[in-house]
Target: Na(+)-dependent transporter
Amino acid sequence: MSQAMLTIILPLALAWMMYCVGLTLKLDDFKRVSSFPLKITTGLITQLIGLPIIAYGFIHYLGLPEPITVGLWLLALAPGGASSNTITYLSGGDTALSISMTALSSLIIPFSLPLMLPLVLTDAHLVMPIKIAILQLVVVTILPTAIGMVMRAYISTKWFKNFINVSGKSALWTLFFTLFVTLLANLSVFEQLFSIASIAVLTLCLCGGLLGAIVAKAIGGDNILMKTFSIEVGIQNAGTAIFVAVVQLQQPDLAVTPLLYGILMNIPALILIHWHRVNKNIMI
Model:
């Protein structure tokens, strides 16, 4: 049952959130993003190099147990996916930039993760299935977003405009649902919620968010860019880290830290969403 939740229900929920995000976007949004390549390049460098440097510092100076250190390293090497895109949308960030960064980083991870993993797990010999990575990106992120964009562009009836409003509100509740499904599928992880691993993943999440905001400010970005970079750098793809630990490395104990992260990352994310909605005077 728990396997079905994670492999079927969760991807469907993520795809629905990306469809809701697509209903708010136009092709011009992505044209605007592509006209500022510095933003994407800087964001990707911060994601793929900046956060791993922070995680590497944690690992070497905090003296954490090996399963936690490896799990933390796996997280640092797996930039955010559909969840970070949805959180960016709900927080008032630049959604088109967020999706663009996710698309590019998803194509880089199958090469960068096996290359950098041995820096911590020295005996690791990993080959990431790039076809699976591309398929996940298309099915969960690109296709639902594109369908939403096309429907918005070609359907202008009153009922559809009302549908867009309703679906936009449903994205937040779907995010809550994904958290519930993750918790329900991993009840055994509850005993670790108040462990050193929880402190480590929350600290990594917050430091990543702070790094993203600082970098965005350094390149002259506004509050929207700071929010976007903060989420994209701070919110990692726990699913990818778990997949590598359990399927590729066949060491389920290494998946505990990413599992905790998948739950606890929602705390700062929901705070940011609530802060945005309060400031925009929007009812949750």
